[in-house]
Design a protein that fits this description.
The protein has one domain: DksA, coiled-coil domain (Four Helix Bundle (Hemerythrin (Met), subunit A)). It is flat. α1 packs antiparallel against α2. It is built from 4 helices and no strands. The longest helix has 24 residues. It is mainly alpha-helical and about 90 residues long.
């Protein structure tokens, strides 16, 4: 598991990237990032502060270092994320 300082650095790099996206990318891409990624990243930073970073918001299990390295702002473990995606597809 990443220590608190490493978690914070990953999330701060992610926020710096989003700032670049807002300044440099097309309007549609900026809106996508503003709508989904930035709020999720801010929530992940709050979870780091609270000491709950890495815990799945659905089942409470640890998300896993591999997933968190690929998706640092992940709020769900891979199993819960897959279940969420299946339900979303059914609803569409």
């Amino acid at each position: 598991m990443l220590d608190l300082q490493q978690q914070r650095q990953v999330m701060l790099r992610r926020l710096a990237y989003y700032k670049w996206v807002i300044n440099e990318r097309s309007e549609g891409y900026r809106q996508l990032k503003l709508t989904f990624s930035i709020p999720r990243t801010k929530k992940a930073l709050q979870k780091i502060h609270d000491g709950t970073y890495g815990a799945c918001e659905d089942c409470g299990e640890y998300i896993g270092d591999n997933r968190l390295q690929v998706v640092p702002a992940a709020l769900l473990c891979i199993d819960c994320q897959e279940g969420f995606e299946k339900e979303r597809k059914k609803a569409a």
